[in-house]
Amino acid sequence: MVANKFVLRFSSALVDQPVIYHLVKDYDLVINILKADINPHQEGYVVLELSGDSENYNRGLEYLKSTGVDISPLSGTIFWNKDRCLQCGACTSFCPTNALKMDPQERLVDFDGSRCIVCESCLDVCMARAVEVRF
User: Fold this and answer.
1) 5-35 burial, b if ≥16 CB within 10 A, otherwise e?
2) What is the pLDDT of residues 41-80, one digit of tens each?
3) What total number of domains does the chain contain?
4) Residues 66, 6 share a domain
């Protein structure tokens, strides 16, 4: 079994194509969609975990490349500097997986790296620059 996380970027011509469906049906791959932004007639992206047996996995990646989907491995990790954090909580409202969350009792931000999908949504909103990507 092979499993990896990817960012798939779709051109406006591809967003209405059943690409994910074919990965499941034709290549017997397991898809775990972590985040997506797909709109008709616009570019879009999907952050997903793709897993399956080695042969189908490789065939599925070749299929994606042949359709023109831009495939990038999800690389890097988010580093949260607790000492630099202002505890404002702005990042928590943008984190789609609750990797960054605010404890309602203590009003303190906490980071759970195991939940992070490295979508980078938190980077732009952190005024203290306490969140960064490390490659």
Assistant:
1) bbbbebeeebbeeebbeebeeebebeeeebe
2) 898 889 899 999 999 999 999 999 999 999 988 877 899 9
3) 2
4) yes
